[in-house]
């Protein structure tokens, strides 16, 4: 049995969407949920019963709250309480559709780092025609040293294998050319250490390969990763904006089939549909989904988190780091 | 009168598309073209006459040739000859739909830097619902110092004003949050110099703002810019791939209107439709379009290049740099 703390108050349509997502879990999956939030509000959303134990919290972090404000002024938020449940050992992991920065700050503040980890990292899944690509880091560590990127590669590789079920995950180092000679100083210094690390390193990959499905894990510093993530979000909006704009301007009738095709494609570009953002490198695990997540996305996030904890991702990360240390010493 | 050298041999459908693009220019525009390439091949593409003088070259740089190979082994390529026409003062600027790396290498090798410029930079236009955003640098300078980013900002600002017709262009520094406190070390060190520079600096911008139309010029180092560029290309392919895949899987009939809507939107996402890549900071000007460019795109690229030279972009860049130097000394 695995026990997951879930933030009932995070997301655009909370707590309803979260409650519905929790209720979609099957008894046979062996996942026990601690649903953190306002008990009354939760009750109202579950007239036919709730497959979870409710843990009370009295404050809610809003989307516009800064991480430091949330940390200082809202110590009894659903995020803070959920993160603490993991710290206390009452839950194995935490899932939230709330404020990404606030969840990250709370986890970084509350949980210790894994032994050997220099800096934690945040991951997202980039959609491709095959399996999505795990991109690490997308904003936890903006100025990185080579060894930190190698640690990200190890964390990403273990996570891809254990939580996402990839066999011998292909790990690439993001650069601006696949040749070893191309890239910036950080890439040049990182590559030889990457080649020696206990991972399936396939070399440097370029930006377009993130969405080609050729690589399971792509590693970059948090400045580059966060820029890519936000640029991608803007680009997807722009494209679908153009599509609907042309349809309107030229008075093209979009029948329901075509509309459904557009919406489905747009949903596939939303990284939250494929697993949300995972913070790795801490003694605790958390998965942060998008505020717009559907109940199905909430349910999937809880399942992914259960896989993360079941397969002892953190133990394996620590083992791999020890192996790397032995090799490089 | 302005004289532009044009590479007849570059691009997927050369020389036909290039010849057609040149022939679309109106006599009244006052642009004289020196078309560089194989005279026989060019002649065959222009049975009804050519609005250009042909300059002979005997070699062609292929798309897969490395920049250093092209530079060493193909000294009489259409790229090398075109770049030399500018060096000799016979042309005011060079336009090519060929191998971007080879054009860049040839220009960097042949042309001197502008006085005061530490490193040249490559720009592209990012599509938005309003006017496209000029992104500088996308790969010419991968490890940047703060002063280099400020020089990019000045070059981008002058180019946006003179060649693209933007009034008092808004310049942003790419970061991972709009607050001054967010970003990496490079951003933190660059921002105060940016604020003192003779440009309309509006502060830090995030990746999604590149496609929002809120900013005319966005500045980043060439590693980040090149990663964004390639990631964007991959993402656009993925999205349209999903659209057509869903249509096929669910047997949705796409009528001609819907198809045209899809193709038009896809074309708008192609940065070459909005001007190609411009290399700035050298005593010479060149514009590099996509290999897939249409004859219309070729024609527009020649017009943009004519604007660049007509408005003395380089003179104004040098003046602004002197102003910055006076301010910071």
> How do the SSEs of chain A run, as a string of H and E?
EHEHEHHEHEEHEHEEHHEEHH
How does the major sheet of chain A shape up? Answer: 11 strands, mixed
Q: What is the overall pLDDT average of chain A?
A: 91
Rg value of chain A: 20 Å
Gap between N and C termini of chain A: 39 Å
The 3D shape of chain A can be described as globular
What's the multimeric state? Answer: homodimer
Q: How many beta-strand elements of chain A?
A: 11
Characterise this structure:
The structure is a homodimer of 329-residue chains. Chain A has 329 residues and is of the alpha/beta class. Chain A is 44% helix and 16% strand. Chain A contains 11 helices and 11 strands. Chain A has an 11-stranded mixed beta sheet, sandwiched between helices. In chain A, helix 7 (185-196) links the parallel strand 7 (170-174) and strand 8. In chain A, helix 4 (78-87) packs parallel to helix 5 (100-110). The longest helix of chain A has 28 residues, at 222-249. The two termini of chain A are 39 Å apart. Chains A and B meet through helix 8 and helix 9 of A and helix 8 and helix 9 of B.
């Amino acid at each position: 049995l695995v026990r997951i703390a879930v933030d009932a108050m995070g997301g655009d349509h909370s707590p309803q969407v979260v409650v519905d997502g929790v209720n979609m879990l099957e008894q046979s999956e062996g996942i026990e949920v601690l649903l953190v939030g306002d008990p009354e509000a939760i009750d109202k959303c579950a007239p036919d019963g709730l497959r979870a134990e409710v843990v009370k919290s009295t404050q809610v972090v809003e989307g516009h709250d800064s991480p430091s404000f949330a940390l200082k002024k809202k110590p009894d938020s659903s995020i803070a309480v959920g993160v603490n449940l993991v710290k206390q050992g009452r839950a194995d992991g935490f899932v939230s559709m709330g404020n990404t920065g606030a969840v990250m700050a709370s986890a970084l503040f509350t949980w210790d780092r894994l032994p050997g980890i220099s800096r934690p990292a945040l991951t997202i899944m980039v959609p491709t025609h095959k399996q999505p690509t795990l991109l690490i880091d997308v904003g936890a560590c903006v100025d990185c040293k080579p060894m930190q990127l190698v640690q990200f590669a190890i964390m990403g590789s273990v996570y891809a294998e254990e939580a996402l079920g990839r066999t011998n995950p292909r790990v690439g180092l993001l650069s601006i050319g696949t040749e070893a000679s191309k890239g910036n100083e950080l890439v040049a210094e990182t590559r030889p250490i990457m080649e020696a690390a206990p991972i399936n390193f396939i070399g440097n990959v370029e930006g377009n390969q993130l969405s080609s499905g050729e690589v399971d894990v792509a590693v970059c510093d948090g400045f580059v990763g966060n820029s890519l993530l936000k640029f991608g979000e803007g680009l997807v909006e722009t494209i679908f904006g153009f599509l609907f704009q042309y349809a309107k301007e030229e008075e093209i009738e979009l029948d329901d089939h075509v509309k459904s095709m557009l919406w489905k494609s747009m949903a596939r570009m939303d990284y939250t549909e494929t697993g949300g953002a995972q913070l790795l490198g801490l003694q605790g695990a958390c998965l942060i989904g998008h505020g717009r997540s559907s109940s199905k996305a909430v349910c999937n996030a809880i399942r992914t988190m259960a896989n993360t904890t079941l397969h002892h991702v953190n133990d394996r990360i620590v083992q791999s780091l020890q192996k790397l240390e032995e090799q490089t010493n």
